[in-house]
Amino acid sequence: MFQNEMKLEFPSKSQNEAFARVVVAAFASQLDPTIEELSDVKTAVSEAVTNAIIHGYENTQGTVVLKCKIDGRKLTVEVIDYGKGIEDVELARQPLYTSRPELERSGMGFTVMETFMDSLEVESEPGKGTRVIMTKEFKQL
Q: Is 59 a catalytic residue?
């Protein structure tokens, strides 16, 4: 069974969101995904990294950790921040919920991640940070 993994750390700057998308897409390309599968993964990663930057660190700078693992045909992506954490994960996962309404964001980040990936786990502790774990199984060609 094919296995591979990588880990990347970068500053919580908004311009690094696009970088993270491309890195994960390049890593996932080992699985020979369809354009649609790759687009789904990039969209979910974009949402997770944006959440870490905007909500995890708010107006401070920190580090975002991106881990990817391939196990067979399954890609696991983890996005970790050491920011403020989420008080109520279940509430945060509700569609249209946002903790920063002044930013005019849609509050659909977790919903988008769930839609485009096969599974989504959110682990968070106030004051310690948040870890988002997403998986996607790639179809056999």
A: no
CATH number of the domain that 71 lies in? 3.30.565.10
Considering the candidates 16, 17, 21, 51, report the single residue annotated as catalytic. Answer: 51
Give the pLDDT confidence score for residue 141 in this predicted structure: 65
Q: Which of 17, 47, 78, 131 is catalytic?
A: 47
pLDDT digits (tens, 9 = 90+) for 82-129: 999 998 888 888 877 776 666 666 677 888 999 999 999 999 999 999
Range of the domain at 11: 3-137
Is 4 tagged catalytic? no
Set 93, 105, 114, 123: catalytic member: 105
Tokens of 128: 């310690």
Count how many domains the chain has.
Answer: 1
Helices and strands: H and E segment counts in the chain: 4, 5
In three-state secondary structure terms, 13 is: coil
pLDDT bucket at 42, cuts 50 / 70 / 90:
very high
**Interval 124-135 mean pLDDT:** 97
Is 105 part of the annotated catalytic residue set?
yes
Helices (H), the chain: 16-28, 35-51, 89-92, 109-116
